[in-house]
Design a protein that fits this description.
CATH superfamily of the largest domain: P-loop containing nucleotide triphosphate hydrolases
Distance between the termini: 103 Å
Family: Belongs to the DEAD box helicase family. DDX56/DBP9 subfamily.
Structural class: alpha/beta
CATH topology of the largest domain: Rossmann fold
InterPro entries: DEAD/DEAH_box_helicase_dom (IPR011545), DEAD_box_RNA_helicase (IPR050079), Helicase_ATP-bd (IPR014001), Helicase_C-like (IPR001650), P-loop_NTPase (IPR027417), RNA_helicase_DEAD_Q_motif (IPR014014)
Number of strands: 14
Organism: Cladonia borealis
GO biological process, one term: gene expression
Protein name: RNA helicase
Helix content: 25-40%
Largest sheet: 7 strands, parallel
CATH architecture of the largest domain: 3-Layer(aba) Sandwich
Length: about 625
């Protein structure tokens, strides 16, 4: 029986808010001293709301379904009670070896992140707690050997867990705890059959944790599949809790997205670390190659890259090695992507006509000739009554996600270069910034309906519905007490950079994107496999393994890297933005009042005001040379 949903797609019958008083210290939760020592080492002063409410209930053996926003400490809320239970069992009987906890997560990146959190909290009891991450790329024989030693905690995606259960490598006969983290994503990622396999294998009476940022019908289905009678903790997000994100939207044409983002980063209108969300993998490489024309360094994060490379990109970003990540999350626009994947090449080849800036590129003409040959082959295939072979699609990892779960640290701003297709996706994207009480900014580009497909080389299919999606986003944010404000660039000042943008876009052809995509994948595979053992033995060499290097697939134009003074507005960067939008590093429209007062005080009592000597080079020119009369 399906439950009634409210406007936020939340099952109202299971939603219970709990905002009462909670513990002010971890020491009052009854945890093992070794766990408290690890907590103190991480400088956690007091438990968050979800931790204070969930940990005591978990220690009592209750099933828990918790809804709390990203970054609220849900991971520690289930890891600490699980470690406490394992330590108590080890103290009672050290000879009892079995898998005590199975933690299921939707992505490999999140599995790696959860494994690190477990290692952090078990730092002072590591001899008593053994953890295995099944998502690591190791031979099956090695994985079977590790599981044969009966680790205490197993972290896996549902697909990996089901695979090892079916091969009898993983035994859950004595399982005590089952965790499904990011529960609302697990079903949407296509793990239905795997979860059913796990549910059939898990014994009855297992304590279950369902942790999620939202309560949807998917979570309700998992509740009925795994939980007995869970206690539901629904920590609604208040406006004061999430007011750190300043949200802005810019209405612009399709090609003006590239113009504005070039101006933003080349003139450093936004400072700090930034995540740029784009619609698909090709789009990410188009933007990276576009940035390379101007000497702007960035790295790409998408589902095609090896998992070791993806994890390393996130780790290095958190260490402040990179400032810009261009991320594509295909799961957010899955339905649109399925439709576009068969039409992308044809639509882009048609872009060579009319207003296409790539029409004069010889590589494009060569591609068109190839397309013509493909049509002739298709006709011959029809004549011989042979079915047309489907185009091979690039292999993408199902166990990948970037807008949810992954812990990006100290993100100053999020830019929705391509607007997501739903308000939920938008909320999860902007949740990458303004975490742990910090402030941040979200800037979204929206293409008006009358400007859609006006510039075919930069057209993206989901932009057709940008205005409709923006209305839903604005309505959803207003319910939370937030506002998506319009942001206006002075386009008269920005237009001075337009011809440079056009030069750069002409260089980023479809052929260049394809070559860059292949080259990046080849390089990352080499780094991921060939150098893995070397970096395990020499961790100090990791700084040489950078992911923001130039792909150089597009024609490089050195003059675009420098911005001449004549392009700058007369009153500096203020002339472009004209306002200060808070957290991002836009220069203030007024001078520092205190500094100006100090300068005035210094000039008092010194007679005439200081003047700057301006020399006319024509009047001071000496044709006879210095020192001659």
């Amino acid at each position: 029986m399906k439950r009634k949903l409210n406007d936020d797609d939340v099952p109202t019958a299971v939603s219970v808010s709990d905002t009462g008083n909670h513990a002010s210290s971890f020491s009052t939760l009854g945890l093992d001293p070794r766990l408290l020592q690890a907590v103190a080492k991480e400088n956690f002063s007091s438990p968050t709301l979800v931790q204070a409410k969930a940990i005591p209930l978990a220690l009592e053996g209750k099933d828990i379904l918790a809804r709390s926003k990203t970054g609220s400490g849900k991971t520690a809320a289930y890891i600490l009670p699980i470690l406490q239970s394992i330590l108590q069992k080890k103290a009672a009987s050290k000879h009892n070896k079995s898998v005590s906890a199975l933690i299921l997560v939707p992505t490999r990146e999140l599995a790696q992140q959860v494994s690190k959190v477990i290692a952090t909290f078990s730092a002072f009891c590591s001899k008593d707690v053994r953890t295995i991450n099944l998502t690591q790329k190791v031979p099956d024989a090695v994985q079977r050997t590790l599981l044969a030693e009966s680790p205490d905690i197993v972290v896996a995606t549902p697909a990996r867990a089901a695979q090892n259960l079916q091969s009898s490598a993983l035994s859950v006969n004595k399982l005590a705890h089952l965790v499904i983290d990011e529960a609302d994503l697990v079903l949407s990622y296509g793990y239905e059959d795997d979860l059913q396999t796990i549910a059939d294998a898990v014994p009855k009476g297992v304590q279950t944790f369902l942790m999620s940022a939202t309560l949807t019908t998917e979570v309700n289905d998992l509740k009925g599949l795994f939980c007995r009678d869970p206690i539901i903790l629904d920590f609604q997000e208040s406006a004061s809790d999430s007011g750190g994100v300043s949200q802005y939207v810019v209405h612009c044409a399709e090609d003006e997205k590239f113009l504005l983002i070039y101006v933003i980063f080349k003139l450093q209108l936004i400072k700090g670390k930034c995540i740029i969300f784009v619609g698909d993998v090709d789009r990410s490489y188009r933007l990276k190659l576009f940035f390379e024309q101007f000497g702007i360094r960035s790295c790409v994060l998408n589902s095609e890259l090896p998992v070791n490379s993806r994890i390393h990109v996130v780790e290095e970003f958190n260490k402040n090695v990179y400032d810009i990540i261009i991320a594509s999350d295909e799961h957010e626009v899955l339905d649109v992507r399925e439709e576009k994947s068969d039409n992308t090449e044809q639509e882009m080849s048609n872009a060579a006509d009319g207003t296409n800036d790539e029409a004069n590129d010889p590589s494009i003409k060569q591609t068109d000739d190839t397309a013509q040959k493909e049509k002739e082959l298709d006709k011959k295939a029809k004549q011989t009554d042979k079915p047309k072979q489907p185009r091979r699609r690039s292999k993408k990892s199902k166990e990948y996600g970037v807008s949810r779960g992954i812990d990006f640290q100290n993100v100053a701003s999020v830019i929705n270069f391509d607007l997501p297709v739903s308000s939920k996706s938008y909320t999860h994207r902007i949740g990458r910034t303004a975490r742990a009480g910090k402030t941040g900014m979200a800037l979204s580009f929206v293409v008006p309906a009358h400007l859609y497909k006006k510039h075919k080389p930069t057209t993206f299919p989901t932009a057709e519905h940008d205005e409709e999606v923006l209305k839903k986003i604005s309505s959803h944010q207003q319910k939370k007490g937030k506002e998506v404000k319009p942001y206006h660039f002075d386009m008269k000042q920005v237009d001075a950079f337009r011809y440079r943008m056009n030069d750069a876009l002409r260089a980023v052809t479809r052929i260049a994107i394809r070559e860059a995509r292949t080259r990046e994948l080849r390089q990352e595979l080499l780094k991921s496999e060939k150098l893995k053992r070397h970096f395990e033995e020499n961790p100090e060499d990791l700084h040489h393994l950078r992911h923001d290097g130039e792909l150089r697939a597009a024609r490089i134009q050195p003059h675009l890297r420098h911005v001449p003074d004549y392009l700058m507005p007369s009153n500096g960067k203020q002339g472009i933005v004209g306002q200060d939008i808070g957290f991002v590093g836009l220069r203030k429209t007024t001078d520092n009042r205190i500094r100006r007062a100090r300068m005035q005080n210094r000039m008092k009592g010194k007679g005439k005001k200081a003047t700057v000597l301006k020399l006319d080079p024509l009047k001071t020119f000496n044709a006879k040379g210095r020192g001659r009369s």
